[in-house]
Amino acid sequence: MTDHGPTAVPRRDADDWEVATVDGEARVTIHWTKRPRNRLDRFLFDLFGTDRERELELDPVGTTVWRHCDGDHTVAEIGERVAASHESERVAPVDETLAHFLMRLEERGLVRFDASETTEE
């Protein structure tokens, strides 16, 4: 499990995604190919005929997060956007909810983190 601080900068690693409007709200669908992590995974994928193509449909909160994982926004900035854009009951506590969601995206190889650049004066 990884833990990234508020100054970490998430960047999308998946290029195949689309935005659609569902019930008046934007929703992102991400498409990617699951890669086996080792020979055992590859063997089991082949043995059970597991489809490697994956699709993940995000809800409006996830869509807000995904759209801001562009390498220009820190985790803290994304948290502020989520808190301002969605009902507090849905996202509270924002920091924990966001951290967990970003961790899951990272585990799936859909985002990576860049350390924020610090400017020295």
Automatic annotation (TrEMBL):
InterPro entries, alphabetized: PQQD, PqqD_sf
Protein name: PqqD family protein
Source organism: Natrinema altunense
